[in-house]
Amino acid sequence: MMSVKINVSSTWKDLVTPKVKVSGVWKTAQTIATKVSGVWKNVWVVTGWVDLGQQVSETYIHSIATDGTGVWCAGTGLGGKILRSVNNGATWSDLGQQAGQSSIYSIATDGNGIWCAGTAQGGRILRSTNDGATWSDFGQQASQSNILSVATDGNGIWCAGTGTDGKILRSTNDGL
User: Fold this and answer.
1) Among candidates 176, 23, 174, which has minimal Cα distance to 105?
2) Where do the structural domains in the chain lie, given as residue ranges?
3) What's the first-to-final CA gap in the chain, in angstroms?
């Protein structure tokens, strides 16, 4: 088990989470995390984690992010699917395999409707301009084989980290 510290109204509280990697913290202390074969949701600090069960047939959820308004997207391994929730993670829709990829390693949003995701086996960037409802394939980036992480400043600058040679890729035009 790992202990996670969450800042709730200027005080830090310890949470014990059952073997999960915390991937995002929301200001109201609502946090979604991934585990093997499912999703955990912390609905309030004092209640702990609720097992939402396996969301798709794939057994790994590699990445998960929120825009802070109730929209969440998650990327799977062994299937390359994107899952989407519009009710703060209570229920999830399977958007299917993206660009024929085997894994979605990373996913992030600028909080203004633009989302980017990085893939394994092909090092592709996927992009959504409608809060993660649909995705476009922007192809392999800089001859990379894996995009392990993506992040943004929320002002049009995006960076992606690669998996084979430790490069950082940068976009200054909203991930285009």
Assistant:
1) 23
2) 1-54, 56-176
3) 40
**71 has pLDDT over 50:** yes
The single residue listed with the structure tokens 């979604």 is 32
Kindly report the CATH class assigned to 56-176. Answer: mainly beta
- Specify whether the CB–CB gap between 32 and 39 falls below 8 A: yes
Alpha carbons 103 and 62: distance in angstroms, whole number: 8
Q: Is 16 helix (H, G, I), strand (E, B) or coil?
A: strand
Lowest mean pLDDT, pick from 66-70, 132-136, 163-167? 163-167
Q: Rounded to an integer, what distance in angstroms lies between the CA atom of residue 111 and that of residue 91?
A: 20
pLDDT at position 82, please?
93
Rounded Cα gap, residues 123 and 2, in angstroms: 31
Euclidean distance between CA atoms 99 and 96, whole angstroms: 10
Instruction: Report residue 4 as tokens.
Output: 């996670």
**Confidence tier at 95 by pLDDT (50, 70, 90):** very high
Neighbours of 46 (CB within 10 A): 10
Q: Compare 140 and 87 and report the one with higher pLDDT.
A: 87
User: CA-to-CA distance for 94 and 104, rounded, in angstroms?
Assistant: 13
* Residues contacting 171, CB < 8 A, separation 6+: 157, 158, 159, 160
